[in-house]
C-alpha cells in the first residue's frame, strides 16, 4: 500500500474533524424521503473524497463473515466475534465481541459491557456495565459512569437517568420522597431515578451539597431509586454508527478491501478544505431545517392519532413506550413472520403472558390503517376475535401488541399436502362455525358495526385449542348500526376473496354482505384445500375454482376429487352448499352471517342447491350477466334481512 504525502495527511486530518460533525447529520438524514436522502448523501461525500474515494472499492480479497452464535445471541456485521471472525468482518476494533460461558462482552479503555441484546435493524445494543454492578458506593467508578466511547452513543430517547448522590448534608425531614438511601453506604448517600436521559444533567445543583454521579438505565414500569441494583443489571441502550465503509459489505456475508492499484495519490489545495467546510455547514443547516419540518408534521400527526384513539375512553387499548416494547420482545431472534405490512415478533408481557408484537413499516401509509386497526379491534371482546393488548406510537415507530396464537394461521393447515389428517373434517367444521360467530359479532353485536374487508385463511389465527380468531383489521371500516351500506373509494381486500361489489359498484352496494362473500370463498378453500389465486393464474387452462368445485359437487362422485370420504360427506357437503350461497354475485342473493349460522344448524336435506354463477365472465369483464345455468333461489330459501330491504341511513362514516 502507498503512503499519503504529508500534505495529504494534514488535509485528511482536517476533513476528519468535519466527519465527526457529520456523523449525527448522516444518521438523522435517513428519516427523510429516499430522493432527498440520496441527494444529500452525494453532497456529503464531496468533502470526504480523500477518506472514502482514495480508490474505488474493489473486491480483491473476501473473507467469510457468516453470523456466529454466542449463547442465544447472533453476532453479525458490524460486530465480529474474537476467535471466529477476522477483524475484516467488522473493520473497527470497538465492535470486537468476546464470548465467555455463552455470554457476550465487549471492552474499551473505560469499561467492560455485558451484551444483552442486539437490534441490528435499528442499530441499537442493550448492555450492562459489569464494572458498575457492585459499584453503587464507589465514587471514583461512578464519576465517569455516563462516559461512552465512539462509535457508541448513549440513546437519550430510550434511556432514563439514575443519579447517585454522596456526601449529602440533609436531615431526614429535608429528604425528597424519591431519594432512596444506599444500602452499601453510611448516611448521606442516596439513589434517585429521574426522567429521560440528558447528559448535561450530571452537572445539576442539588440541595445538601451532594456529589452527583449519573448512570444511564432502561427502567421498567414502577421502578424507583431503591431498585437501583436491579435497574443497573437490566442495562441500558446504546446507539452505534458503523464506519462509512459499511457500503462495501456484500449481501453474501463477506467484506471487501481496496487494492494498492485503487490507492491513488491526490493533490488537494488548501482552498478545497475551506470550500468543503462551508458546504458541510450549509448542508447541515438544510438537513436540520428539513428534519424540523418533518418532525413537526410527524408529531402533530401522532398527536391527532393518539387523541382519536384515547377519545374512546375505557375502550382504548393501553399505550406502550417504544422502550417497553423493546423489553417485551427481548430479542429479534424470536421472529414469527414478515410481510408487506411489517414484521411480527414473539414476546412476553411483564405479567408473563405471551404476545405477538407487530412492527409496522415506517413507510406504510400515513397512519390511517394503524388507527383503523387500533380503533376497530380495540372495541371488540369476543372469543373469536383476537385480543389487542396495546399499541405503541412514537414518531415514525408504530407497533401493535396482540395475544399470542401458538398454532399460527389457518392457511398453514388447509393448504398443506394432507390437511384433513392434521385437523380432521370435524375440526374444520367447528372452525368454520367459530369464524361465522366472530363475523356475526362484528356485524351485529358491537355498538359500532365493523366490516372487516379482508377475511381469508391467513387472517384467521388458531389458539392452543384450535379456536379460530379473526385478526388484521387494517382494512376494516366502521359505521353506525343504523347504516346499511358503506361509502368507499377504491377496492380493498385480497384477490380471490374480494366481493364483486367492492371492486365494481355495478354489482350493488358495499355492506356486511361483502364479508359474507369472502367467508364463502374461504369455506370453499377449506373444502378444496388449495389457493384460489392459483386458479386465476391458470386462465383458460383450468376452470375458476368455485366453478370447478360446483361441477364436481353436482356429479355422482360428489366431492371425492377434494379427498372427501363417505364418512365425512355430510359435513363437507354442508360447508360447500353454504359456501355457494355466500358467494352469490349479487349481495341481495347472499344470506346474512346470522342466516349462515342458522344454515349450519339445519340438516343437509333442508338446504337447497344455489344457482351456479357465471364466475369466469365476472373475472374477465367486471360486468355481471343475470344469466344463470339453473333456477334462482325460491322465496322460501331467499335470505332475509338483506341491506336492500332496510331503510338506508346517512350517518357519518368513521
Element layout with pairings:
Elements: H1 6-29, H2 34-45, H3 49-52, E1 63-64, E2 68-70, E3 73-75, E4 80-81, E5 96-100, E6 103-107, E7 112-119, E8 124-129, H4 139-142, E9 152-154, E10 160-166, E11 180-181, E12 190-196, E13 211-217, H5 228-234, E14 236-240, E15 254-255, H6 270-310, E16 318-319, H7 322-329, E17 335-338, E18 342-348, E19 354-360, H8 368-378, E20 388-394, E21 397-403, H9 411-414, H10 419-422, H11 425-445, E22 448-451, E23 460-462, E24 468-470, E25 477-480, H12 500-503, H13 513-528, H14 532-538, H15 545-554, H16 569-582, H17 593-601, H18 615-621
Parallel strand pairs: 4-5, 16-20
Antiparallel strand pairs: 1-15, 2-3, 5-6, 6-7, 7-8, 8-14, 9-14, 10-12, 10-13, 11-12, 17-18, 18-19, 19-21, 20-21, 22-25, 23-24
Helix pairs in contact: 1-6, 11-13, 11-17, 13-16
Amino acid at each position: 500500500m502507498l503512503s499519503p504525502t504529508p500534505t495529504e495527511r494534514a488535509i485528511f486530518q482536517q476533513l476528519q474533524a468535519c466527519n465527526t460533525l457529520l456523523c449525527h447529520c448522516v444518521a438523522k438524514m435517513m428519516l427523510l424521503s429516499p430522493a432527498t436522502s440520496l441527494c444529500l448523501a452525494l453532497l456529503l461525500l464531496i468533502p470526504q473524497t480523500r477518506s472514502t474515494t482514495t480508490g474505488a472499492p474493489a473486491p480483491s480479497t473476501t473473507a467469510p463473515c457468516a453470523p456466529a452464535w454466542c449463547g442465544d445471541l447472533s453476532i453479525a456485521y458490524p460486530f465480529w466475534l474474537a476467535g471466529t471472525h477476522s477483524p475484516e468482518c467488522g473493520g473497527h476494533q470497538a465492535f470486537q465481541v468476546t464470548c465467555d460461558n455463552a455470554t457476550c462482552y465487549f471492552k474499551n479503555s473505560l469499561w467492560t459491557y455485558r451484551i444483552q441484546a442486539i437490534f441490528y435493524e435499528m442499530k441499537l445494543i442493550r448492555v450492562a456495565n459489569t464494572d458498575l454492578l457492585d459499584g453503587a458506593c464507589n465514587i471514583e467508578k461512578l464519576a465517569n459512569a455516563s462516559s461512552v466511547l465512539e462509535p457508541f452513543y448513549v440513546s437519550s430517547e430510550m434511556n432514563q437517568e439514575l443519579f447517585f448522590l454522596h456526601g449529602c448534608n440533609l436531615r431526614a425531614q429535608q429528604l425528597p420522597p424519591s431519594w432512596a438511601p444506599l444500602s452499601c453506604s453510611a448516611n448521606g448517600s442516596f439513589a434517585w431515578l429521574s426522567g429521560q436521559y440528558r447528559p448535561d444533567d450530571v452537572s445539576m445543583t442539588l440541595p445538601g451539597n451532594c456529589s452527583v454521579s449519573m448512570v444511564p438505565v432502561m427502567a421498567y414500569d414502577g421502578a424507583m431509586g431503591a431498585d437501583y441494583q436491579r435497574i443497573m443489571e437490566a442495562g441500558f441502550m446504546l446507539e452505534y454508527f458503523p464506519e462509512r465503509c459499511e457500503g462495501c459489505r456484500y449481501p453474501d456475508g463477506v467484506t471487501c478491501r481496496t487494492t494498492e492499484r485503487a490507492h491513488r495519490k491526490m493533490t488537494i489545495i488548501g482552498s478545497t478544505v475551506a470550500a468543503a467546510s462551508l458546504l458541510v455547514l450549509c448542508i447541515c443547516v438544510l438537513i436540520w431545517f428539513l428534519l424540523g419540518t418533518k418532525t413537526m408534521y410527524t408529531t402533530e400527526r401522532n398527536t391527532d392519532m393518539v387523541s382519536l384513539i384515547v377519545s374512546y375512553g375505557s375502550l382504548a387499548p393501553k399505550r406502550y413506550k417504544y422502550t417497553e416494547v423493546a423489553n417485551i420482545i427481548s430479542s429479534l431472534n424470536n421472529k414469527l413472520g414478515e410481510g408487506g405490512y411489517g414484521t411480527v415478533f414473539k414476546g412476553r408481557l411483564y405479567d408473563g403472558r405471551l404476545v405477538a408484537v407487530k412492527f409496522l413499516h415506517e413507510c406504510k401509509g400515513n397512519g390511517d390503517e394503524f388507527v383503523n386497526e387500533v380503533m376497530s379491534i380495540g372495541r371488540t371482546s369476543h372469543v373469536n376475535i383476537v385480543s389487542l393488548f396495546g399499541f405503541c406510537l412514537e414518531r415514525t415507530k408504530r407497533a401493535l401488541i396482540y395475544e399470542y396464537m401458538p398454532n399460527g394461521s389457518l392457511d398453514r393447515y388447509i393448504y398443506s399436502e394432507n390437511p384433513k389428517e392434521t385437523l380432521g373434517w370435524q375440526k374444520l367444521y367447528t372452525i368454520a362455525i367459530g369464524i361465522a360467530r366472530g363475523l356475526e359479532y362484528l356485524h351485529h353485536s358491537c355498538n359500532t358495526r365493523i366490516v372487516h374487508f379482508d377475511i381469508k385463511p391467513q387472517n384467521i389465527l388458531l389458539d392452543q385449542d384450535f379456536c379460530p380468531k379473526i385478526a388484521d383489521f387494517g382494512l376494516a371500516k366502521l359505521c353506525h348500526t343504523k347504516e346499511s351500506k358503506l361509502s368507499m373509494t377504491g377496492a380493498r381486500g385480497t384477490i380471490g376473496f374480494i366481493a364483486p361489489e367492492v371492486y365494481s359498484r355495478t354489482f350493488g352496494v358495499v355492506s356486511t354482505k361483502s364479508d359474507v362473500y369472502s367467508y364463502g370463498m374461504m369455506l370453499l378453500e377449506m373444502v378444496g384445500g388449495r389457493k384460489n389465486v392459483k386458479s386465476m393464474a391458470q386462465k383458460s387452462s383450468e376452470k375458476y375454482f368455485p366453478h370447478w368445485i360446483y361441477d364436481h359437487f353436482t356429479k355422482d362422485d360428489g366431492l371425492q376429487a377434494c379427498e372427501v370420504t363417505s364418512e365425512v360427506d355430510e359435513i363437507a357437503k354442508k360447508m360447500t352448499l353454504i359456501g355457494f350461497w355466500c358467494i352469490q354475485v349479487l349481495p341481495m342473493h347472499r344470506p346474512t352471517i346470522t342466516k349462515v349460522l342458522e344454515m349450519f344448524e339445519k340438516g343437509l336435506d333442508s338446504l337447497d342447491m344455489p344457482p351456479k354463477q357465471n364466475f369466469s365472465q365476472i373475472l374477465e369483464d367486471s360486468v355481471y350477466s343475470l344469466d344463470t345455468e339453473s333456477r334462482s333461489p325460491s322465496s322460501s330459501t331467499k335470505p332475509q334481512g338483506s341491506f336492500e330491504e332496510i331503510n338506508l341511513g346517512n350517518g357519518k362514516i368513521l
